[in-house]
Amino acid sequence: MVQGSFPPPAFASAQDRSALYADLASWLGNRFSQAPALREQHGHTLTWIENQPPDAVAFPQSTDEVVRIVKLCAQVRVPIVAFGAGTSLEGHLNAPYGGLALDFAQMDRILRVNAEDMDCEVEAGVKRKALNTHLRDTGLFFPVDPGADATLGGMAATRASGTCAVRYGTMRENVMNVTAVLASGEVIKTGQRARKSAAGYDLTRLIVGSEGTLGIITQLTLRLYGIPEAVVAAVCPFAALEGACKATAAAIQLGLGVARIELLDALQVRICNVYSKLTLPEVPTLFLEFHGTPAATEEQVKIFSDLAEANGGGPLSYTANPEERAKLWAARHDVYWAQRAYAPGKSAYVTDICVPISNLAACVKETEADIEELGLTVPVVGHVGDGNFHAVPLVDMSDADEVRRAKIFADRMTGRALSFEGTCTGEHGIGQGKKTYLAAEAGAGIEAMRAIKQALDPCCILNPGKII
Q1: Cβ(130)–Cβ(64) below 8 Å
Q2: CA-based angle 225:228:229, to the nearest 5?
Q3: Which numeric CATH code is attached to 230-338?
Q4: How far apart are CA 85 and CA 301, in angstroms?
Q5: Which residue of 198, 341, 409, 420 has the fewest CB atoms within a 10 Å radius of its CB?
Q6: Element (H, E) at 232
Q7: pLDDT grade, residue 8 (50/70/90)?
Q8: 127 and 144 in contact (C-beta within 8 Å)?
Q9: To the nearest 10°, the Cα dihedral for 173, 175, 176, 178?
Q10: Greatest CA span in the chain, whole angstroms?
Q11: Domain 14-105+450-456 has what CATH class?
């Protein structure tokens, strides 16, 4: 396979775009807009990457409407960027070639809950919290929980993860099939509701994580789980980050049924104390949660307490009180906003690596050394139960030297992850921000990705400029 950059796309002229947008405005009415503020909102806004807004925003209400919009855009080669809740962190939503943002806010129907089969069918614009509210009386829940209240379509597109991934898996494991509109306007459903299948290529896994570059997800079928009989949250301080990582690895290797295990360094604990009104000791800390029967969770707490003590941790405090548990996990989910509030005017230079659990302690220790050497303000937080952590430089983007040091830090983190047989992104995806890192990680595999993109989207109208 010949290596090279993806051919630069040839998109519609300004005249052709204007004609298309006039047609869409006539058809969609107030569900189409070219208002500057709305356009900017639909570009990338959360981190250091420059905002590149689309030309216009449309709000479809059905798969059939998405098909019609895609066919119209394909005729004149206008780029399309699918938009969920706008919570991605790697420039996924930017429109570097202009074009149309498809906002799924009005495709938010829960279509079917199959309680006996423990699955459900939803439109792409349904948000994860709304789904769990709807499921509450069924005794079931959907466990994938990225920090933001993201849409399920967006979560599938970015192969999202979250605090519960160590027990329940990521979107990769929990999406059973999707309905997607291809660049041609053709609709495909990637599978059925059977729990396993050996029928042909795994199109579900191809679309999940493709970041809207191969198809636009309009509906999903998701796995559900029974709400556990007992849930216990715990907090465990440690003398050092390395000890917290070693205790985590020991728990995973032992097969302890921990549902959540989250790492915060001393700086991140301080930030959470201020923002979320906690009173934790400002030392490296693990937030944990155990699911099961009352007897099982009590045993899990005791075993982990012993593991922590053997690695310089403790005492472990725990609670089954729902309000106290909710406050703890709200603080964890709010860390990004807490970081931004801690350093007003600075941007979060997001990193997101994942390594095998046996290499986690060494990787975190070397990252700490980089933070000290480069003189950056870098809170560390992560889903360490699956080897995924974020060290986030808080950077003044007008300070060229600080930006330079942050870039060095991010490059070193990614290089270290790959040297430890890990990945440049555990859950945030590639977007614009990590394309160079993906090339280093995938090697010749990047050419196979280009071939797939060329086959499914030869005119490159679906979220161009992302991944490859």
Answers
A1: no
A2: 145
A3: 3.30.70.2190
A4: 36
A5: 198
A6: strand 230-237
A7: low
A8: no
A9: -150
A10: 69
A11: alpha beta
User: Which band of pLDDT confidence, cut at 50, 70 and 90, is reported for residue 292?
Assistant: very high
Cα–Cα separations (whole angstroms), residue 104 to 15, 56, 444 = 27, 14, 35
pTM, to two decimals: 0.93
CATH number given to 110-226: 3.30.465.10
Query: Which of 347, 425, 383 minimizes the C-alpha distance to 44?
Result: 347
User: Residue 6 has what pLDDT?
Assistant: 52
Contacts of 43 (CB under 8 A, 6+ apart): 51, 52, 53, 54, 93, 94, 95
Query: Across 317-402, where does the E strand assignment appear?
Result: 317-319, 347-348, 353-354, 380-383, 388-391, 394-395
What gap in Å lies between CA 124 and CA 141, rounded to an integer?
17
Domain 344-443 has CATH 3.50.80.10: no
Q: Using CA atoms, how far apart are residues 198 and 413, in angstroms rounded to an integer? A: 38
- pLDDT, averaged across the chain: 94
Tokens of 91: 């420039």
Asked if the domains 14-105+450-456 and 110-226 are classified in one and the same CATH topology, the answer is no
Q: How much is the pLDDT for 1?
A: 31
List, in sequence order, every residue forming a beta bridge with 291; answer none if it has no partner: 231
The CA radius of gyration of the chain, in Å to the nearest whole number, is: 22
Do residues 170 and 160 touch, judged by C-beta distance below 8 A? yes
Host H or E run for residue 111: strand 110-114
Q: Please report the pLDDT score of residue 452 as a whole number.
A: 97
Q: Helix or strand or coil: residue 430? A: coil
Give which of 209, 179, 111 is closest to 449, Cα–Cα.
209
Look at residues 148, 144, 141 and name the one whose alpha carbon lies nearest to residue 120: 141
Smallest CA-to-CA distance from 397 within 406, 409, 388 is with: 406
CA pair distance 216, 417, nearest whole angstrom: 31
Domain residue ranges of the chain, discontinuous segments joined by +: 14-105+450-456, 110-226, 230-338, 344-443
**What CA–CA distance (Å, rounded) separates 284 from 269?**
7
pLDDT 10s digits, 243-283: 999 999 999 999 998 999 999 999 999 999 999 999 999 99
Write the single-letter amino acid at 365.
K
Cα–Cα distance for residue pair 202/173, rounded to 1 Å = 12
